[in-house]
Design brief:
The chain is of the alpha+beta class. The protein has nine helices and 15 strands. The strands form six sheets. Strands 10-11-15-14 form a four-stranded mixed sheet. Strands 1-9-8 form a three-stranded mixed sheet. It has a two-stranded antiparallel sheet with strand order 2-7.
Amino acid sequence: MAATKRDYYEVLGIGKDADEQSMKGAYRKLALKYHPDRNPNNTDAEEKFKEAAEAYSVLSDPQKRATYDRFGHAGLQAGGGAPQGFDPNAFADFSDILGDFFGFGDLFGGGGRRQNRVQRGEDVRFDLEIQMEDVLNGKSAELLVPKLEPCSRCNTTGAEPGGMSACPTCHGRGEMLYQQGFLSIRRTCTSCGGRGQVVRRVCSQCKGDGFKKVERKLKVNIPPGVDNNTRLRLSQEGQPGVNGGPPGDLYVVLKVKDHAVFERHEDQLHCVVPVNIAQAALGVDVDLLTFDGLQTVKIPEGCQNGQQVRLKGFGVPRLNSHGRGDLIVHVDVHVPEKLNREQRRLLEQLRDTLPAENEPREKGLFEKVKDYFM
């Protein structure tokens, strides 16, 4: 009786000012908690499940909600709008609330013939190793990519032309009707996967797969400035869609091979150039073969070990932008481990003419040269 019914807002655990999203979330939580699949042979849970469904069916309807807010349960009965017990038809639009939990996509007729739905194809990843030169200059690369293509003979059905027949389990409907307690539930037919048809004669070309494995030659343009794990997208070059759905995409993931001389840090290039102690003291011009050809690096007089010389604009191009970073040359003053008699004599003379500077220095001075790349 109406007098024994609990307040619908109380049933859902929401306030009277609750919006549609809050109401939907509260109902979904109760529906999942008390659903018969989770509570077999539990009449109390079944009643609470029906009570929550009845409350939501009223409060989710703006007209019924307005009537209920004004007149309560009696107003709904007087206006002919009160649910007389639980109404399974109230679930016609509830599939978006319950999702696929317990197969709710198939519940109340919402998900029959699921396998016939249009589905987008899967994306594909292709790893491509490139050289540092390609990072600086960009390149166009050809890829040989394995993929699936729809079988032209069976048009993805997996059967010879005319080799399909109605499913004997569901009699071509693609779904089965089950009675579960107070519910009538439709579920996708497991024999045919919702297609309503089964294969009698397997396709001679694809052997029933519906697709053929092929290798396709594709071209990808690599812009200057890319880095490790840069992803380049080739639209609709992935796996084919299902039931007429669009293909997925192909993502080319780049790996830059280490270079023997140059090391990259963001948009800068770094390298180490060794000089002997005389060159460091007197200064020297060093020819360095860069990605832009032969460049002269001017090592200044009195250069210290670890000192940097910057060549502006000879670094890495900025991806999808203008300009380039710099090339940083780190000077490595090389002290010979062995000397001949003449070299020793000359260095001894030089030593005697230079001031002795053997006092320990502050720690901060060593920080400048302890790591070239920090």
